[in-house]
Automatic annotation (TrEMBL):
Every Mannose-1-phosphate guanyltransferase C-terminal domain range: 324-445
Protein name as catalogued: Mannose-1-phosphate guanyltransferase
Pathway: Nucleotide-sugar biosynthesis; GDP-alpha-D-mannose biosynthesis; GDP-alpha-D-mannose from alpha-D-mannose 1-phosphate (GTP route): step 1/1
Record keywords, A-Z: Transferase
The enzyme's E.C. designation: 2.7.7.13
Enzyme class: transferase
């Protein structure tokens, strides 16, 4: 597609002005990201050397018509304070603000609650991004499609296997016009392998009236159900419980808005051929890390470590090829020149990697230590964690096309990626495989395919 994107518009309500919202959720969500989310909210977790939110902002910055970005969620404001300060310096052309919901309002309810903030300055269009999405974010391409089609809404879609499609919102579209004909969230039977990527572009004249209509429709339905006595309609007494979300003001784009929009002739899908992945579970951070690193390597990012070069260490010999790209090493990390890293590895600030250590397809978080000759494969080492000399912390590789990080082992479904929470310690010469370990554990003997939950006893 040939892009014809104008220079960055002035933030004064001029024609073509666009705003962006990133939905970050709150503390009662993200439980599948534990144990990592016990110490840090998922949107701030580092993937490929940067918080998940940073990747969203990096993409938004490339859209010239966007000047204002809102993070909407129900975390305490203090959680994002430092991130917002740093982001404001790194993205000086963007005004980035956090809007806190008084309770969980849903992906559409939060938008509607803060509609006055969003509509201030009369923006023409609104991007809405789920923060737990890993992709190349083709926002300019979506904007171009919206202009070409005079679209009321554009959804980002991608193709997955037929078996995986029912786990996502499924889109039926016209292959020629790209108009969305039908949308169903997590259908019970196969509809399409074109799925919702969780990135949207809405006309502001369309999205807020659509949400208002959905709120009224669900409120009317709840009122009708409540008018029946349970003795008159036993089934409705159970349906009332299912509609608690409506009574609590929870309105969701996926379940309550997009299906109705498919009835409009101005709802279109932009199908990306590039990578896409959800970051739902803690283990899914590993494939997301790999995808972002590979994209950065393809784009010639200067942040990545150069292969065949010493990064930092006691020796000065730079002839040993210790880096297998792509690899991200934070400037404050200490990596011995006899360590071997990559591919798809991120090393956090203050981390120490000893001589002979081998790390592949893994994330080593801030201040963690990997001692001499230890191996870390398909794993996440938590903040301040320690892996002893000659120890082996290992997960199982999952196919690139897979959208799950679970595997079947000895007839039991287990986590493919090994995850050690904050300040976990693995003893010397200990094997840890396919484990999820809560913070502050000390692993003194072989641990295979288990969930370590005790804090005081060895696993």
């Amino acid at each position: 597609m040939s892009l014809n994107i104008p220079h960055r518009d002035k933030a004064n309500g001029t024609s073509g002005a666009t705003k962006a919202v990133i939905l970050v959720g709150g503390e009662s969500r993200g439980t599948r990201f534990r144990p990592l989310s016990l110490d840090l909210p998922k949107p701030l977790f580092d993937v490929a050397g940067h918080p998940i939110l940073w990747h969203c902002l990096k993409a938004i910055e490339k859209v010239p018509s966007i000047h204002e970005v809102y993070l909407i969620g129900y975390y305490d404001e203090s959680i994002f304070f430092q991130f917002l300060q740093e982001a404001s310096k790194e993205f000086p052309h963007l005004s980035i603000k956090y809007l806190r919901e008084y309770q969980a309002l849903g992906t559409a309810g939060g938008l509607y609650h803060f509609r006055d903030n969003i509509l201030n300055g009369r923006p023409e269009r609104l991007f809405v991004l789920n923060s737990d999405v890993c992709c190349s974010f083709p926002l300019n391409e979506m904007l171009q499609l919206a202009r070409e089609k005079d679209a009321e809404a554009v959804i980002l879609g991608t193709r997955v296997s037929d078996d995986a499609a029912s786990n996502f919102g499924c889109i039926v579209s016209d292959s020629h016009t790209r108009r969305v004909l039908h949308y169903v969230e997590k259908p019970e039977s196969h509809i399409s392998n074109l799925i919702n990527c969780g990135v949207y572009l809405f006309s502001t004249d369309t999205i807020f009236p659509s949400i208002r209509t959905a709120i009224k429709r669900r409120a009317d339905r709840s009122a009708r159900l409540l008018s029946f006595r349970s003795s008159d309609n036993l089934e409705s007494s159970f349906m009332i419980n299912d509609d608690d979300d409506a009574q609590n003001g929870v309105i969701r784009l996926e379940q309550d808005i997009l299906g109705d929009m498919a009835d409009s002739k101005q709802f279109f899908v932009y199908e990306t051929k590039d990578f896409w992945r959800q970051i739902k579970t803690a283990g899914s951070a590993i494939p997301a890390n790999a995808l972002y690193l590979q994209k950065a390597w393809q784009n010639g990012s200067k942040e990545l470590a150069e292969p065949n070069l010493v990064v930092k260490g006691e020796k000065t010999d730079n002839t040993r090829p210790g880096i297998h790209p792509p690899v991200f090493i934070h400037p404050e990390a200490i990596v011995h020149d006899e360590a071997e890293l990559g591919p798809n590895v991120s090393i956090g600030p203050g981390a120490k990697i000893g001589p002979g250590a081998r790390i592949s397809n893994s994330i080593v978080l801030a201040k963690a230590e990997i001692k001499p000759s230890a191996h870390v494969l398909h794993s996440i080492i938590g903040w301040g964690g320690k892996v002893g000399a000659w120890a082996r912390v290992e997960g199982s590789p999952t196919p690139v096309t897979s959208h799950t990080t679970s595997i079947i082992k000895n007839g039991v479904k287990v986590q493919a990626i090994t995850i050690l929470g904050k300040e976990c310690v693995v003893g010397d010469e200990v094997l840890v495989k396919n484990c999820v370990c809560l913070p502050f554990k000390e692993l003194k003997r072989v641990s295979l395919s288990i969930l370590c939950t005790r804090h005081t006893e060895p696993c």
